[in-house]
Design goal:
alpha+beta; single chain
Length: 295
């Protein structure tokens, strides 16, 4: 049995594993339901439903968790993504009103982990990844902790995004993104950036302009946190199937291929953010493409 599978916790909101000397915990922050037509917007519904039958999905919706990753080293704790956050007043998203009630920040507070975090990496500035940066009072949940974002991501959401496109995205830009200007914000511009020995951030544009993946490597083990490079196993099997959530479909496809080749060639353990929790598995190469093998 692989070492990283020996550490599954009984709680449904946590999953612990190790990559070499790195102790890691996945937290389930929230569950959301997505419409099939939004996940696969260039595919006939009948075709999508036939493919989804393998995953025991026979009709709308597609359930999806939101997660975050805590990496603990001897002298450093790094949090990747901040969850959805919390907000009492409901917001509209995909035509429905819903209350933002992410669990990550309360979980970290209850475990006395919040103040120990040295670095926060936000893979991209969508609400389910960046929504937990600030509380409802406008206070940063992480104090003066270093917060890392890619320059291309920052420039898009602060300069190119048009307010009014989506209430939940408007809220995220206004309440979670713009206030970062007054925090310990570090913008990186390289395609690959090492934040700590064995921890590399990879620019994986397509879903958003500056989305990041996280590659961990320790004692011969490799792990890849792909953020939203793909949303469902069918996006791995069918690289031409697009989703409304990708800003640049062709770039997103090129990014998927690059990550799939990397994960397969290096026998990486892969965490897929929106897959059934904990979203851990590996990439397999088949005759006509790629396949997801869940752990």
């Amino acid at each position: 049995i692989p070492k990283y599978l020996l550490h599954m916790m009984n709680q449904t909101d946590k999953y612990q594993f190790s990559i070499g000397e790195m102790q890691c915990t996945l937290f389930k922050d929230f569950n959301f339901n997505y419409r099939i037509q939004d996940y696969f917007n260039n595919v006939e519904m009948e075709v999508a439903l036939e493919a989804l039958h393998y995953y025991n999905i026979k009709k709308d919706p597609i359930p999806s968790p939101y997660v975050a990753l805590l990496i603990e080293l001897k002298d450093k704790k790094i949090l990747v993504d901040t969850g959805l956050g919390r907000r009492k007043d409901p917001l509209e998203f995909m035509g429905h009103q819903f209350v933002i009630d992410g669990r990550l920040i309360p979980i970290l507070q209850e475990g006395n982990l919040l103040e120990d975090i040295d670095t926060v990496v936000v893979t991209h500035l969508h609400p389910d990844h960046a929504g937990g940066l600030f509380d409802e009072m406008g206070q940063c949940n992480f104090g003066d902790t270093e917060i890392i974002i890619h320059q291309a991501e920052w420039e898009y959401w602060t300069n190119k995004y048009t307010m009014g496109e989506s209430p939940v995205f408007d809220y995220t830009v206004r309440e979670q993104v713009m206030p970062l200007q007054d925090q310990n914000l570090k913008l990186i511009s390289k395609q690959e950036y090492e934040i700590y020995p064995g921890i590399h951030l990879l620019k994986i544009a397509g879903h958003t302009p500056g989305q990041l993946a996280v590659h961990l490597s320790s004692e011969g083990e490799d792990f890849l946190y792909i953020s939203d490079a793909w949303l469902h196993p069918l996006h791995i099997q069918h690289l031409d199937w697009t989703t409304i959530f990708d800003l640049d479909h062709q770039q997103a496809k090129r990014t998927r291929i690059r990550l799939l080749e990397m994960a397969y060639d290096q026998a990486m353990i892969v965490q897929s953010f929106h897959f059934e929790f904990p979203g851990m598995g590996r990439i397999d190469k088949v005759t006509n493409g790629w396949n997801w093998v869940a752990s």
